Amino acid sequence: MPLSPQEQVRLSAAAFAAAPWPALILDGEDRLILANEAAEALLGSAIGLLRRPRPPVPALIGVARQARRVQAMVLEAEVEVVIPDLPPFTAALSATPLAEGQVLIGVNRAASPGRSAATPAALKSAAGLGRTLAHEVKNPLAGIRGAAQLLKATAGADEASLAQLIIDETDRIRRLVDRVEIFSDERPLRAQPVNIHRVLDRVRAVVANSAGSEVRFRERYDPSLPHALGDEDQLIQVFLNLVKNAAEAAEARGDGRGEIVLATAYRHDPRSRAGGPAAAPLEVVVQDNGPGVAPDLKGRIFDAFVTTKPAGTGLGLTLVAKLVEDHRGRIELDSEPGRTVFRVRLPVQTAASPHRSAP
Fold first, then answer.
1. Vertex 123, ends 25 and 266: CA angle to 5°?
2. Are residues 336 and 270 in the same domain?
């Protein structure tokens, strides 16, 4: 059954709000009339300035007017965006003309050279996407699958195979939705003292058995570290994803010299000042000597559906970033050809506890 115009508008609005990249809509006079959550997080207080008539933002206005002129989507890469009250930044802009002179603008902000970090805005957008898919896609999928099953029961051989194709595809989409829906899980974390070295040793054993002799592991552990504070199962999931990715990258060398380094250390965290965010001084490094992350992916590596794997869904690192964020930690990527490093910063158990980690 086709969607009604009202349903189409509602789904379009939900998709705009849940998009993991900053998106803005300008009216026919280049004034901001709508911004999604990712744009609010990127531009902050500057949003108010953009809503004034004729905001002094040449990059946004230029790409918007160009899209109106050609009445087609316009892409501009490596554009310097200058907004008062904000440091200038480089971004790739996209502009799509809408009705009545309005223009939809996407802002893909470039990361600092060689480094990418998961941002709260991207994770919140992934959570919004999970909620939207769960509510707006699962119910129609169930109806489509049920109708296909009824058709299959009364159809001939050729029609039955087509009905089965519909069933198989709806099941595949349902599995994808289930994976995305986890991002909307907002239950509080059950934090306990966790021996991070025991977590890493378990992950190493699992990945080493599947990677074979193509990849060599090296550990550089600090035996004096206190326990991490978190959920052990979730931390295993975090580092299993990271080490599996590192093993695949190391194997991609194809010369039998792939190497993964697992390291831990205690780093002073400037966030530990009184009244600030929770400190995350326990650092875990997962490093490989594979080909590195492509430059055009570095700034989006933690976004949903960004992947370099032919059969990948692009949700693995997004899930890793969500779990680290749930632990009130941070994750960063630093990559160049021959060296890719993921740094995970985690909070630690309180100093009053007598427990200590051991390698």
1. 140
2. yes
Cα dihedral 298→301→303→304 (10° resolution): 140
Domain-ending residue, one of 45, 77, 110:
110
- 221 and 326 in a single domain? The answer is yes
354: in domain: no
Query: What pLDDT digit, counting tens, does each position of 253-281 carry?
Result: 888 889 999 999 998 765 544 433 457 88
107, 24 contact by CB (below 8 A): yes
Candidates 345, 329, 340; CA nearest to 123 is 329
Position 118 in a domain: no
Locus of tokens 């029609």: 159
Which parts of the chain fold into alpha helices (H)? Answer: 5-18, 37-43, 46-50, 58-70, 120-136, 138-154, 157-181, 196-211, 232-251, 295-298, 316-326
Which parts of the chain sit beneath pLDDT 50? 1, 111-114, 272-277, 352-359
Give the Cα separation of 204 and 286 in Å (integer): 11
Residue at 355 is within a domain: no
Same domain, 210 and 342: yes
Query: What whole-number distance in Å separates Cα of residue 265 and Cα of residue 4?
Result: 57
**What domain range is 162 assigned to?**
124-184
Q: What is the DSSP string of 36-105?
A: -HHHHHHHTTHHHHHTSSS-S-HHHHHHHHHHHHHTS-EEEEEEEE--TTS--EEEEEEEEE-GGG-EEE
Question: pLDDT digit string (tens) for 306-332?
Answer: 666 655 556 778 888 888 988 889 899
196 and 342 assigned to the same domain: yes
The answer to whether the CB of 27 falls within 8 A of the CB of 64 is no
Total tally of structural domains belonging to the chain: 3
